[in-house]
Amino acid sequence: MNHKKRINILSGIVALVIFAMLPPFAHAAPVITTVTPQADGTYTTSFGINLQLTVDDIVTVTGEPYVEFLIGSRVYQAIHFSTGFPGGGVTVLGFVEGVESYHADSDGVEMLSPIILNGGTIRNAGSEDLVLTFTEPNTSGVLANPNGSEVVTFSPSHNETGVSVDTNLVMTFDETVGAASGNVLIKRAYDDAIIQTIDVAGGPVSGNGTTTITINPETDLDPATTYYVDMNEGVFRDTDSGTDFGGVSGEYFWTFTTAGTGSGRIAPSPSTVTVAEGDTVDIGVLLDQPIVGDTEVQIDISSADTNRITSNVSSITIDADTWEQSGNFTLTAVDDDIDNVSNQVVVTLTANTTAAYYDGFENTVTVTITDDDTAGITAPIPIQSVTEHPTSPTIDTMSFVLDSEPTDDVVITPSSLRNQVSFSPTSITFTSANWDDQQSITTSAIDDNNYEGTHSDTITFSISSTDAIYAALSLDDVPVTIIDDEQPTRSGSRMNPVVVRQLFADAESSIEEESTIDDVIQCTQDQSLTQNLTRGAIDGRPHAYAGGIVIDVARLQNYINQILKDRYSFAAGPIDGMFGPLTKQGVVRMQQVLINEYGYDLGPFGADGIVGPMTRSAINAWCSRE
Questions:
Q1: Fewest 10 Å CB contacts: which of 67, 219, 247, 348?
Q2: 274 DSSP β-pair partners
Q3: Among candidate residues 580, 602, 603, 575, the one with its CA nearest the CA of residue 533
């Protein structure tokens, strides 16, 4: 054997070995490379409108695939045709729809991607399926019977939402039409179920012989549901030409959704319930229709008031096989310490699923919570008394505590009505953390270095908070008795004329209605009338004071007695026509009144208790007023 022959044999063996080691040939999935629509033009009956799709590999077609052609307002199935290679392989797929009299399209026949296999297959020799999508061509110039009847508007419009459940279906045509024969179908979009079948011959259809056809559905539609309207060619006819209307493929041209929530689709039981704080309630959920498809419905449970209500689960699931059985969950009313403004909360149920009938629809459970908390402030025990002292005054303490947790800070601020007492601290604040801790305010008498005797003040309180319930509360005023640490001192032996004037001016409301201050003191120029009021008994008749001034002593007594009783809760004693019952103790009290009210000291009194300090100069001052 020569060397060349040996080399060729060895080369062949090596080649066979290498070929055997190579992987099988990998076929790529075939794709559509070229899209060729029907040439622009106007096509009438007996013409065909076709579409050619060029594939980058030889493919074999089985079954009856088609491409949808949208002609006018209806979709038609353009059937497959092709001339294949021996053995059935093709590289060009053809689809055609023959033009009929009812086809009418004046704005271009649309050729819709993808190819619909319709139970068939399109594969190459390697059993790789064709990628069915293609770029939809511009066919605005491909027209079909442009003079035929076409719908100008639909009502409700295509893809309109919030449509009334009792809506009519209205079609406005570009030419006059009338009912021919056949049915208008209202279909539910999520499962293509026929909801109503309306016979146009004698059915609830009006507008024959006009350009507007109105269809009145026999029953109201369901809320929150998507529908489409379907009708074949020939249901309506052009009354002038006798040409059949091409029909409507509603899923492409006339789809709408009714108004509403669709809450009945997921129905809780009970949907309203009352529960006490700390207690629980079981809620069941039922579906109203079978679940379409091999799927399940997840119902999410939520609430904006999770501080008031909680659920034992965040969602429940109902599957297609058990759709008639109730899904269940448990709600718990939170036992808090708050007196809540509103005791009604809402729990929302939301369907989350691939089943279109249920997906996104909601329902609610309204829960009324019986609150066991009442807002309030435990009020302080009334203060007995406090004593003035420059260094060691006696004090009293007021303690406070809230009866329930507030939703925001509550500030209590005390005030002194007559500015006779002070507070430490000047206010206290209760929060959601310390609301049940007792807080105190110390009350002290203000040492003002003025003789006031034992006197009183009133403590008032303001409450501020954005918690509406606490902000509306009030606290009772607290009286306080203040013991003075000063003694009365004489600041003059004669009454200040201004004080006399004010004192007697105030008397007018205390003396008998028919009396005036001039009935008490009558200023005259009769110098012969003279009597000393500082000595002896006075019988209550009008008497002259030195200088010709006449005083009705009884009325003056009445005034003094009334002002002490009405304004200072002090009784001077019986009125017997004499100054005698106005004892020294009584006059001292009156002196305290004058000091407190007018800052003036009457001065000392005689041993007999007579009102001596009302001297001539004081009375003269009154009479010399303007």
A1: 219
A2: 368
A3: 580
The torsion angles phi and psi of 537, rounded to 5 degrees, stand at -80, 155
Cross-strand partners of 463: 412
Q: Contact 79/95 with Cβ under 8 angstroms?
A: yes
Round to whole Å and give the CA distance between 496 and 622: 10
Strand, coil or helix: what is 85? coil
**119 has pLDDT over 70:** yes
Phi then psi for residue 574, to 5 deg, are -65, 155
Mean pLDDT of 107-120: 93
Say if CB 356 and CB 189 are below 8 A apart: yes
Cis amide prior to 114 (ω within 30 degrees): yes
At 17-46, the pLDDT tens digits run: 333 344 444 458 999 999 999 999 888 776
Yes or no: say if 455 and 484 are a contact pair by the CB < 8 Å rule.
yes
DSSP β-bridge partners for residue 173: 151
Q: CA nearest 152: which of 72, 42, 74?
A: 72
Task: Determine if residue 299 is left, alpha or beta; phi over 0 gives left, psi from -120 to 50 gives alpha, anything else beta.
Answer: beta
pLDDT of residue 496: 36
Contact 207, 214 (CB under 8 A): yes
Residues in the chain: 626
At 401 the three-state DSSP class reads: strand
Name the burial class of residue 609, with classes exposed (0-12), middle (13-18) and buried (19+) by CB atoms within 10 angstroms of its CB: middle
As a whole number of angstroms, the distance between CA 595 and CA 488 comes to 9
Contact 123, 129 (CB under 8 A): yes
The 10 Å Cβ neighbour count of residue 598 is 15
What is the rounded CA–CA span in Å between residue 427 and residue 222? 62
Report residue 102 as tokens: 């009812």
pLDDT in tens, 600-617: 444 443 333 333 334 444
The 8-class DSSP code of residue 105 comes to B
List the single range of 162-171, 210-219, 367-376, 483-492 with lowest mean pLDDT. Answer: 483-492
Closest-CA residue to 139 (of 97, 172, 178): 97
| Integer CA distances (angstroms), 285 to 288, 295, 329, 332, 349, in order | 10, 18, 9, 17, 9
DSSP reduced 3-state for 486: coil
ω into residue 425 within 30 of 0, thus cis?
yes
Q: Rounded mean pLDDT of 268-295? A: 91
- What's residue 589's pLDDT? 55
Give me the residue label for tokens 């329902």. 363
pLDDT class for 562, splitting at 50, 70, 90? low
Q: How far is CA 393 from CA 308, 335, 397, 443, 448, in A?
A: 50, 47, 13, 10, 12
CB 183 within 8 A of CB 198: yes
512-524 pLDDT, tens digit per residue, is 443 444 554 555 5
Whether 463 contacts 475, CB under 8 Å: yes
Asked if omega into 604 is within 30° of 0 (cis), the reply is no
